[in-house]
């Protein structure tokens, strides 16, 4: 196994792990991101945060790095930051709060739908769409890295981030919440991502065979 990386490769649309319902986990678990050695949940979460910042994201769920567990990280910035890969300004300098949530349970507290924000996804790079319906306010109950049970309420953009990341833990993409023709409009780009996802999985399998020799 390779040593723990500074950042993880982000799994792309078409990778089966992104469609699986993730399993609960404990802060004391040992996790193994495919292709790397065992790490503590805290180590994985810290690397996920670094991965998210480097990719200029606002959130990242464990399935997006190949782990089918109910864990996501997110950040709140000084100004609402939509997924914008490839920008120049350092995101970490604008972070107000970082979040690491284990086994999050999301409850809607304002059912009115908000469609005003553009939404993107680090596993579907380069594709952004407006009109994704999200509840305006939610509460999230979760376990933190110290094993403490916590709860937070969020509205507007941060509520959208929490809903997006919770969706990932259930195998749902934001495109799934839009009419099918939207996905069809991006068919060529998504097919390219599926090919990249398959190639990466093949490379992991080949590396595993080499280690087994």
UniProtKB/TrEMBL annotation:
Active-site annotation: 165
PANTHER family: PEPTIDE DEFORMYLASE
Keywords, sorted A to Z: Hydrolase, Iron, Metal-binding, Protein biosynthesis
Obligatory cofactor(s): Fe(2+)
InterPro entries: Peptide_deformylase, Peptide_deformylase_sf
EC number(s) from the headed UniProt entry: 3.5.1.88
Catalytic reaction annotation: N-terminal N-formyl-L-methionyl-[peptide] + H2O = N-terminal L-methionyl-[peptide] + formate
Function statement: Removes the formyl group from the N-terminal Met of newly synthesized proteins. Requires at least a dipeptide for an efficient rate of reaction. N-terminal L-methionine is a prerequisite for activity but the enzyme has broad specificity at other positions.
Name of the featured protein: Peptide deformylase
Family note: Belongs to the polypeptide deformylase family.
Enzyme class: hydrolase
Cofactor annotation comment: Binds 1 Fe(2+) ion.
Residues annotated to bind Fe cation: 121, 164, 168
